[in-house]
């Protein structure tokens, strides 16, 4: 709705309250001033020019209000209605635009600009027939103007009056001769009418007029191609190549035909010629190559082809970051991470604004367990893209792996401030925060972080295992620790690490026989027999079951395998169990 303006009301209020003259005198003065035609004209002119100024400044809504206020004073000025119509188009209110355009056109039927605005208003309201009728009237009124006849045809085409539109364009062509834009419009209409030969004839007229213009041959070839007229299409594409031997559209089209015929050599020859052309859009090349990423999983030969095409893209566009990112994606998908890293690093050197490439770098360094490079890249990313969750997350991972626990805590908490993270990723952050807080002795915060992780992903076996183990080390909430550890084993029953944790929780509960059973189950694994921490735990359990000699045997074995716990040497020397406060 139009906002009601109250300048005159305000004016009268000011006059009524400015002084305390007798009521009859005040009323007389006010009536005299407001009713003065000169005052009304002056006020109206002021509003009109203010509206024009607001329109020029792009403040369309203020201009609408000012023109509306103007019309309260001057109701018979069609220009104001015309201006309001154009403004309502700008603020995307087509209904009001049409209403004001109609009023302007009715008030002054001779002004062509009012008629054009009415046609445009019909157009934005999808009333294409009505718009065409207005331009028909204008074309009759101004027969020398080709523009009005052209616009009539365009609106008829939008109204799906294809035959009528075609008649208009034919009539216009009789006046102007062969014009490219007209020929293309006629060609589109003829194709909609399934008159393929006539559509082709329109383009042939352009070819006859401009026999050296390659793009007209390509349009004609595409018409034949889209209508399954293979032989004619191939002939036209070859003609285009005779004019331009590296034309990518013709080469890609011929490559497609060769592929359909099973001519792989021909397909590859045409395709590589197209890719070698730097004028062939890099975006189209990238779109063409990306399906090879999926195909290589089914057909290994596609990897070789995809990499060859990617290399051609780099050769044709050596300064384009997209080219190197494309090849890096091919390498990454096939597990060639060293090569992928080279190209991703080159890509960010050429264009550092693409987060997706930085993400790939972080992902590879994380996968390769390279915390130093992961920290280097994630620090850059978290600075350049502070609103991207993964930059802060990977920085937290890198700092944690490098035992920079306070920095890891800061980075992970920064990640949690970002709202676009998936729930699963937030659970990972809380889990890692639990580990980092534990490492810094902040056990309350550690427990709280694990609890939050489990609220999101209650069946995360790793969180259940770590949380229960750390509780058991502190001898706190052991029943809860046992429940969580048991659940982790239900989720991953073959994990010797989880068996070790469960045995340790049972040990801290004084359930030594059960602890022994689970520890022996874990030690059936060859890997577990090489784990010094598990061997030491087994010794602890045996000692508390009064199997001292056997306990000594496993403690010594743990030391031989590299156990470094502070209490182990004392256990062996003093032949007694000493409670460990931390897992080594």
Number of helices: 35
What's the shape?
elongated
Number of DSSP-assigned strands: 0
Give the % helix: over 70%
Which key features would you list for this structure?
disordered N terminus, mainly alpha, 584 residues
Describe this structure in words.
It is elongated and about 115 Å long. Helix content is 77%, strand content 0%. Helix 14 packs antiparallel against helix 15. It has a domain of 74 residues: Serine Threonine Protein Phosphatase 5, Tetratricopeptide repeat (Alpha Horseshoe), CATH 1.25.40. The chain has 35 helices and no strands.
Write the layout of secondary structure elements.
Layout: H1 7-17, H2 23-34, H3 37-56, H4 60-73, H5 78-90, H6 94-107, H7 112-124, H8 128-141, H9 146-158, H10 162-176, H11 180-192, H12 196-209, H13 214-226, H14 230-243, H15 248-260, H16 264-275, H17 282-289, H18 291-298, H19 301-316, H20 321-333, H21 337-350, H22 355-367, H23 371-384, H24 389-401, H25 405-416, H26 423-439, H27 443-456, H28 461-474, H29 478-491, H30 496-508, H31 512-522, H32 526-529, H33 532-544, H34 548-560, H35 568-574
Q: What's the quick description here?
A:
The protein has helices at 7-17, 23-34, 37-56, 60-73, 78-90, 94-107, 112-124, 128-141, 146-158, 162-176, 180-192, 196-209, 214-226, 230-243, 248-260, 264-275, 282-289, 291-298, 301-316, 321-333, 337-350, 355-367, 371-384, 389-401, 405-416, 423-439, 443-456, 461-474, 478-491, 496-508, 512-522, 526-529, 532-544, 548-560, 568-574. By secondary structure, it is mainly alpha-helical.
């Amino acid at each position: 709705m139009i906002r009601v303006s109250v300048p005159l009301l305000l004016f009268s209020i000011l006059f009524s309250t400015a002084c305390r003259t007798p009521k009859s005198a005040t009323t007389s003065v006010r009536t005299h001033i407001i009713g003065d035609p000169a005052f009304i004209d002056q006020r109206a002119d002021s509003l009109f020019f203010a509206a024009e100024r607001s329109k020029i400044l792009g403040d369309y809504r203020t201009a609408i209000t000012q023109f509306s206020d103007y019309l309260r004073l001057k109701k018979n000025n069609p220009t104001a209605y015309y201006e309001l119509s154009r403004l309502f188009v700008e603020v995307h209110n087509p209904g009001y635009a049409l209403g004001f355009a109609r009023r302007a056109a009715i008030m002054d039927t001779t002004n062509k600009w009012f008629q054009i605005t009415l046609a445009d208003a019909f157009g934005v309201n999808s009333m294409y027939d009505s718009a065409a009728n207005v331009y028909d009237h204008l074309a009759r009124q101004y027969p020398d103007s080709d523009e009005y006849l052209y616009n009539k045809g365009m609106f008829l085409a939008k109204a799906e009056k294809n035959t009528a539109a075609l008649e208009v364009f034919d009539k216009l062509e009789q006046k102007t001769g062969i014009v490219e834009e007209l020929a293309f419009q006629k060609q589109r209409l003829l194709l909609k009418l399934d008159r393929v030969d006539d559509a082709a004839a329109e383009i042939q007229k352009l070819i006859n007029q401009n026999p050296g213009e390659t793009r007209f041959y390509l349009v004609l070839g595409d018409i034949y191609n889209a209508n399954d007229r293979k032989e004619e299409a191939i002939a036209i594409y070859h003609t285009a190549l005779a004019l331009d031997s590296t034309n990518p559209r013709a080469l890609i089209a011929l490559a497609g035909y060769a592929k359909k015929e099973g001519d792989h050599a021909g397909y590859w020859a045409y395709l590589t010629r197209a890719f070698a052309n730097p004028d062939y859009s890099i975006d189209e090349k990238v779109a063409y190559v990306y399906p090879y990423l999926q195909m290589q999983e089914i057909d290994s030969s596609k990897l070789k082809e995809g990499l060859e095409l990617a290399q051609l893209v780099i050769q044709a566009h050596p300064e384009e970051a997209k080219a190197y990112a494309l090849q890096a994606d091919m390498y990454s998908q096939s597990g060639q991470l060293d090569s992928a890293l080279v190209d991703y690093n080159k890509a960010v050197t050429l264009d550092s604004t693409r987060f997706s490439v930085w993400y790939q770098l972080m992902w590879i360094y994380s996968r390769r367990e390279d915390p130093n490079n992961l920290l280097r890249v994630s620090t850059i990313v978290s600075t350049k893209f502070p609103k991207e969750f993964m930059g802060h997350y990977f920085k937290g991972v890198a700092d944690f792996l490098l035992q920079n626990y306070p920095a890891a805590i800061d980075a992970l908490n920064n990640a949690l401030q970002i709202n676009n993270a998936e729930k699963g990723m937030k659970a990972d952050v809380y889990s890692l925060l639990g580990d980092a807080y534990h490492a810094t002795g902040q056990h309350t915060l550690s427990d709280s972080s694990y609890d939050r992780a489990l609220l999101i992903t209650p069946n995360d076996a790793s969180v259940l295992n770590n949380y229960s183990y750390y509780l058991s080390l502190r001898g706190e909430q052991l029943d809860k620790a046992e429940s969580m550890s048991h659940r982790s084993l239900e989720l991953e029953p073959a994990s010797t690490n989880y068996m070790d944790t469960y045995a340790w929780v049972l040990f801290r509960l004084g359930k030594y026989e059960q602890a022994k059973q689970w520890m022996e189950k874990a030690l059936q694994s060859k890997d577990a027999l090489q784990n010094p921490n598990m061997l030491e735990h087994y010794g602890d359990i045996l000692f508390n079951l009064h199997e001292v000699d056997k306990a000594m045997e496993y403690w010594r074995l743990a030391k031989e395998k590299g156990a470094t716990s502070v209490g182990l040497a004392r256990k062996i020397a003093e032949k007694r169990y000493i409670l460990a406060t931390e897992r080594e």
